[in-house]
Specification:
The protein is an alpha+beta fold. It has a domain at 55-137: ApbE-like superfamily (T-fold, Orthogonal Bundle). The chain is built from 8 helices and 16 strands. The termini are far apart.
Length: 307
């Protein structure tokens, strides 16, 4: 029997998720997907701030404790990844911006008072962390937020697990972050769609993936407007203000985690500098400007249907 593409959709991490697997048996494919979705659940419970008892919230609750908190190897890898990009981006990518995120969430739809932003900035900055072996010490009031990483890290982890389970051809989609388990039969790529912000449930372009991952950061759903100007929900951890650069960025790379991190950095740059920076990455990417222009490298554009 020839394997066919089996689709399985499920809600997770506040998003619609889907796993595609080529398999001869839907029963076997469903069995495999249960194992993969269980890994999604594990990481969501561990790293989402939405879960009160998540490990990431445990870390924040220990802020100010001179004894610190013991960090497992998986979480240490996330911190190491974050620190690398924090340094490379000169502080634009920062997983310690939880206090700033909380301030904006509490004050919505109005911006926080500048005094509150200033106070939150004093509790922000990866350089303020102190490591002694596996123990991490945080300054009082600091809050860790892996929101810019957790979906992408999860999709990479699930794809790797799929390979370990013997899946030859598959694609994981967690709320718009993608990772390839294996190319489609015949080494055919998976076409991943770039949303059209002007028309709901339509695509403006696709990027082909045969390996690695793809991630998108943008304000398709969440926009803040002040004095007639639109801002995304992404907060600049250096200024405490909302981003007013590009409206969306999609990047394909060796991992979805790396792609997501770079997309976040691009979103926090001034629009012209972000476009130049993306071009120098030499990776397939797409972006949407404030004027609604969608462009990039490695895109297959979808022409609008007449009538």
């Amino acid at each position: 029997m020839t394997p066919s593409n089996k689709h399985f959709g499920f809600p997770a991490m506040g998003s619609y998720c889907e796993i595609q697997i080529y398999d001869e048996s839907r029963v076997n494919a469903k069995h495999l997907v249960r194992k993969l979705s269980a890994e999604v659940t594990r990481l969501d419970k561990k790293y989402s701030r939405a879960h009160l008892n998540s490990f990431v919230n445990d870390i924040s609750r220990e802020a100010g404790n001179k004894m610190g908190i013991n960090i497992d190897s998986e979480t240490r890898k996330l911190f190491d990844h974050a620190l690398t990009y924090y340094q490379q981006s000169q502080g634009l990518f920062d997983v310690t911006a939880g206090a700033l995120i909380r301030q904006w969430g509490m004050s919505y739809p109005q911006p926080p008072a500048q005094a509150d932003i200033t106070a939150a900035l004093e509790k922000t900055g990866l350089h303020r962390l102190h490591w002694k072996g596996s123990r991490l010490t945080l300054p009082a009031g600091m809050e860790i937020d892996f929101g810019s990483l957790v979906k992408a890290y999860t999709v990479d982890t699930v794809a790797k697990l799929g390979q370990q389970l013997g899946i030859k051809h598959g694609l994981v989609n967690l709320g718009g972050d993608f990772a390839v388990i294996g190319a489609q039969p015949g080494d055919k790529p998976w076409p991943v769609g770039i949303a059209n912000p002007e028309e709901e449930r339509t695509l403006s372009a696709t990027i082909d993936l045969t390996s690695g991952g793809l991630a998108t950061t943008g304000d398709y759903a969440r926009v803040f407007e002040q004095d007639g100007k639109q801002y995304s929900h992404i907060i600049n951890p250096k200024t405490g203000q909302l981003n007013d650069g590009l409206r969306a960025v999609t990047i394909a790379g060796k991992t979805a985690t790396g792609a997501s991190t770079m997309a976040t950095i691009a979103m926090l740059m001034p629009e012209d500098k972000a476009i130049e920076w993306l071009a120098n990455l030499d990776l397939p990417h797409a972006y949407r400007t404030n004027a609604g222009v969608i462009d990039g490298v490695g895109l297959k554009r979808i022409e609008a249907k007449a009538g």
